[in-house]
Amino acid sequence: MAGMTPNNGSVFSGGASNAAFKKQLNKVYGWYTGGFVLFVVVLAILEQMGMGREMIGYVFLGATVLLYGGIGVMSRTNDAAEYYVAGRRVPAFYNGMATGADWMSAASFIGMAGTLYLTGYGGLAFIMGWTGGYCLVALFLAPYLRKFGQFTIPDFLGARYDGNLPRLLGILAAILCSFTYVVAQIYGVGLITTRLAGVPFELGIFLGLGGILVCSFLGGMRAVTWTQVAQYIILIIAYLIPVVWLSVKQTNFPIPQLIYGQQLEKVTAKEAELIKDPKELEVRAIFKARADALTEKLKDIPTALAADKAAAEKKVADLKTANAPANEIAAAEKALAAVPKDAAVAKTEWTKQKTGAENRSKPLANMPPHAQQFAGDPAGDEKARAAFDTSRRNFLALIFCLMVGTAALPHILMRYYTTPSVKQARESVTWSLFFIFLLYFTAPALAVLVKYQVFNVLVGTPFDQLPAWIAAWTKVDAALLSVADINKDGIFQLAEMTIGGDIIVLATPEIGGLPYVISGLVAAGGLAAALSTADGLLLTIANALSHDLYYKMINPNAPAARRVLISKILLLVVALAAAYVAAQKPADILFLVSAAFSFAAAAFFPALVLGIFWKRATKAGACVGMILGLGVTFYYMVMTQPWLRGVFGVTSPIELWWGILPISAGIFGVPLGFAAIILVSLVTPAPRQELQILVDHVRYPTLRGDIDTRGT
């Protein structure tokens, strides 16, 4: 299995017939799955024999990254068709599995259940939107793009719309949405690696990056495909085991997807208790007082800042005069150093603290009741009705953006170029849906089971008896988990904890009291999810630059070997740039991912769908539609999303259009893109005859023969 030149007899080269190749793959991945399960069992035995947690983490991290790297080395290639589209010989079943891994990402594996935990019913918009998007892929795009046959989405735009300008716009849009998406994946890699191996966050990013690069750098799409199949097997095993365990522990029933409704009823009852609990009310009142005090300070910042500084200096001086213990003096000096340096810094910090205190003064630590559909009340007063309408509008807008974005993401659509035929491209969408369904059908159950565990087991526990995972995760990142005895009664209340959605899945084994080896397994699964998507995204960006920009626009005579080499160099550069941005912790994983969906939806969906189904769509229309659609989406995000406002220095008040949140900005860009393409196409000359024949060929292969349009 060494020496991976195309068709050299390696298991991944696919030199034999498709049937023999698939049979060979079944055997290899069957042995692989059995070996992985045995590996986990052996580690579990070693843990019982005294193997330390840190060593278990290192073994999981090292073994999985080396495994992926080994597949990358065995799949190395310089052949253009192998590098860009895996030789177009990936069976539908395995392409569906690879697409499932490519799709899962850190957002699905790490963020999905966490979002459902924090937002309840509202989080179902992600599941409905993402899975619904694959119906659009199957109906409108995958078979037709496979029939077209080339390597990338900008390829299609350049050929269909007859020129380099649509191709260039496609390149820029692919880079924008893919780079945004890959930053989120690399952030997830850093988070998981930090918890798994105990290394600093920034170092964790670059350790994970090594695994990403070995796969995609050496073998392109071929290496990425077979690595993603291996990664899917790990991530789905890792996701299901702790949920089944929790289900058996709580209900004595091993199928959580069928039983979690029973636990949801108990969670709903507990929510009603916690809302009225005197201790919870006491903690919430403390936070309300803090928020009120900060509101007063923000009314006259210079005076309040001077008073805070004077009080902190006086405390330090008094402690030194009284010869107080060194630790008390050190704490006072630390408090003095924490006083904002000037009024501008004070305004930023106090506003943030005020928002946090206000949120924690609300019932259920600012989480909505889990089974509540939307905020507000349709039968309430005017304010309640407005809140209900806005909440419902955002729910539907988010579903729309995620559906359309799913159907337009370049790294997902590229996967359907790798199948042997149009028929298998359509079949692989079905398999993709099945493999994604396995995780998405489980995520709501996981969220409810974890919430039941927190509400019924954790709440009410003395602080000195809190489980070890609380302290462990607090050390990883206080923004993800922090706990403090606010009312000093020594008992843990829900309002005394802030928890980020990104740790719910990773902490599930520890929350459920499972052996640490299962925590390592889940972290390895999250790492597999993040790495698999990062591989596909980085390859999309590098291919857009090397194939579409360099080869198709700058040097059409470049040999295949040079194009592949340039793609590898660019892949390395883009990966390092994404790692640098991720190290800055720019925003939460779910926003970054959702932003990528809105960008992809607005930039690609109208141009792709009309390019396939409307022969009258013109080059000018496509260009104007892509520019306006992506432009208005990006503009709305910059004007309304806090992190982006800070990046671009926007200081004007936030004005939401019809109350739509920035995560759903694509709701404005997509209709504008369709309208612009249609209107401009109608007032510009029709495409030339050859392009209309191309559309006929892509849509109706039986009319003109199944011509190979792959090109070079």
Topology (SSEs and partners):
Blueprint: H1 18-48, H2 53-74, H3 80-85, H4 92-119, H5 124-148, H6 153-160, H7 164-197, H8 201-251, H9 256-276, H10 278-299, H11 301-321, H12 326-337, H13 343-360, H14 382-406, H15 410-413, H16 422-440, H17 443-458, H18 468-476, E1 481-483, E2 497-499, H19 504-511, H20 516-554, H21 560-583, H22 589-613, H23 619-640, H24 642-648, H25 666-682, H26 689-699, H27 701-704
Antiparallel strand pairs: 1-2
Word description of this protein:
- The protein is mainly α.
- It is 74% helix and 1% strand.
- It is built from 27 helices and two strands.
- A two-stranded antiparallel ribbon has the order 1-2.
- Helix 2 packs across helix 8.
- The longest helix has 51 residues.
- 48% of the residues are buried.
Q: What percentage of residues falls in helices of 4 or more residues?
A: over 70%
Described by strand count, sense and barrel closure, the largest sheet is: 2 strands, antiparallel
**How many beta-strand elements?**
2
Radius of gyration: 27 Å
The helix/strand series, from N terminus to C terminus, equals HHHHHHHHHHHHHHHHHHEEHHHHHHHHH
Show unreliable segments.
1-9, 703-712
The total of helices stands at 27
Structural class: mainly alpha
Main attributes of the structure:
single chain, two-stranded antiparallel sheet, 1% strand, 27 helices, disordered C terminus, mainly alpha
Give a short summary of the structure.
With 712 residues, the protein is mostly helical. The chain contains 27 helices and two strands. The protein has helices spanning 18-48, 53-74, 80-85, 92-119, 124-148, 153-160, 164-197, 201-251, 256-276, 278-299, 301-321, 326-337, 343-360, 382-406, 410-413, 422-440, 443-458, 468-476, 504-511, 516-554, 560-583, 589-613, 619-640, 642-648, 666-682, 689-699, 701-704; strands at 481-483, 497-499.
